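Translate sequence into C-alpha cells.
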Amino acid sequence: MNPFVSASWLHGRDGVAVVDVRDAWEYDSIGHVPGAVNVPFDRFRSDEGEAGKLPPRKDWEALLSESGVATDAEIVAYDDTQGVFAARFVVTALLLGHDPKKVHLLDGDFSSWQRDHETTTETVDPTPTEYESDPDAETPLVDFETVQGLLPAAEAGDVTLVDTREDWEFAEGHLPGAVQLDWREVVDEETRGLKPEDELRDLLEGRGIVPEKRTVLYCNTARRVSHTYLVLRELGYERVELYEGSLTEWRERGGELASE
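Result follows.
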C-alpha cells in the first residue's frame, strides 16, 4: 500500500481517476488538475451511515458512479488543506472496499500540482459508471466496545491509543492512556506535504507510536484521524486501526475520559 503519491507521479499518467474534494467554487474559479472531477467533502460525509460518519454504502456507490469512477479505478484525491479532507475521501474508499493498492492521496495537496503543472477551470463532464463497493472487504475499523476493552492495555503501555487532535482538545478530555499527536505535526508547513521519513519516525517513536504495537487512532469525527492513518500505512505500520466513532460517539455513550 502506497497511500501518498507526488504531483510528478500523477503528471502524464493515463487512466487515473483524479478527485478534487474542495468546494465547487474553488474547483470552478481557482482551477483544478486537468481531468479532475469535483466531489466536495460534504457529498461523502454522513451524520448517519455505516460505522459512524461513513456515508451509506448505496450513497457512496451512487456518488462514485455519477463521478465516473470505475470499480477498479486507480484513484488520486486532493484538497488545498494539506490533505486532511482528501484523506477522508481516500479512507472512505478503503473502508468501503476499494482496492488499497489503487487509492491515493496527493502529497502536498493542490499547491504541489499548481507549482509545477498546468491547471484548468474547465468543468469535467464524467461518463457515469456502475461503481460497486465490496461489503466483504476487511477494514481496520474498531467499535466502542473494542476500544473500551483496550483501555487497560493502553494504560499499561501494551496498546497505543493515539489522539490526533490539538493540544487544547486533548487537555480537555481524552481516552485514558492515550498519547497525543496533532495530525498537523507530520506535515511540512512550507511544502504542505509529509515531512521527511526520518523526521516522521523520530516524531512517532518519541510519542511511543511504534510499528510493533497495536495502534488505534481517534479524533472527534474521524476526519483528522484519516490523514494520520494514511501516514502510518505509508511508513509501513501494519497494526493500525481506526475508531470511526471517535470522541463524538465515546461521549454520547458515556465512555470514560481522562484530562490534564
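Note: The mean pLDDT is 94.
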